[in-house]
Amino acid sequence: MSDLFRVDGLTKSFGGLAVSRAISLAMAPGERLALIGPNGAGKTTFVNLVTGQLRPNAGRVVLNGEDVTSLGAVRRVRKGLVRTFQVTRLFAEMTPREHVTLTVLQREGKATGIIGRFLGNHTVAEEVDDLLDVLGLVEKADRPVGEIAYGQQRLLEIAIALALKPQVLLLDEPAAGVPSSETPRIEQALARLPASLAVMMIEHDMDLVFRFARRVVVLAAGAIIFQGPPAEVAADARVREAYLGNYANARRVA
Ligand SMILES: Nc1ncnc2c1ncn2[C@@H]1O[C@H](COP(=O)(O)OP(=O)(O)OP(=O)(O)O)[C@@H](O)[C@H]1O
């Protein structure tokens, strides 16, 4: 299987603190990968390095065989490397349909000043409907975002990310801050993501991680300490010590 996306020796320090220690990782089209690790392990820093919010001290980011390390975040998005953030960045007064429509128009390079014309544009409207449907947001499509549940706001962020037509999608804690009553909705939506999309999810909810991912990568103190299928990761002594101890014990007792 050829790599869609790869990082080689990605390294970053903040002053004397080494936060990313020569991380190397590859993803194939359609992969479902979870990046886990304790608080401060360097997961968000890794995503920032991959997507161009941060520059590495050393190492490369390669997408479709092209070295994109010197490109800024916006150009990486145009090439298909897209992320969501831990905290939502939505406009409370705007509806989900407006958010997604604006994103599609932006992607297509249409001027927002003539948005009214394009809101009636059949192709754009159909694409927006499809995206809202994949994320289970059809019923709330025309409500102001400030009035919909937080879990649905998180799903809208994923819809916006998908509207950018990613090849690789990085989800930074999609269930963070979401009440447990709403996490099944997130799980259902994640199960409906396009099959060819490579998805990397950072998440602390281990039930969600183990159901979603086919491969789990464990980061501790800026380095990968283990990677493998969920069942093997949960059984690994180093991982239990670094991160999963409480989860594994809780499962044994349950
Ligand atoms: N801009 C920065 N300047 C200095 N230190 C930073 C900066 N960003 C992150 N750090 C430090 O780098 C380390 C890794 O942080 P990071 O946010 O990447 O971890 P994380 O694994 O995503 O943690 P969490 O699960 O809590 O979100 C932490 O010690 C953090 O304090």
UniProtKB/TrEMBL annotation:
Domain of life: Bacteria
Pfam families: ABC_tran, BCA_ABC_TP_C
SMART domains: AAA
SUPFAM superfamilies: P-loop containing nucleoside triphosphate hydrolases
Record-annotated ABC transporter domain positions: 5-246
Keywords: ATP-binding, Nucleotide-binding, Transport
Presence of the UniProt keyword Nucleotide-binding in the record: yes
Molecular function GO terms recorded: ATP binding
Annotated family: Belongs to the ABC transporter superfamily.
Name under which the protein is recorded: ABC transporter ATP-binding protein
Organism per entry: Mesorhizobium escarrei
Phylogenetic classification of the source organism: Bacteria, Pseudomonadati, Pseudomonadota, Alphaproteobacteria, Hyphomicrobiales
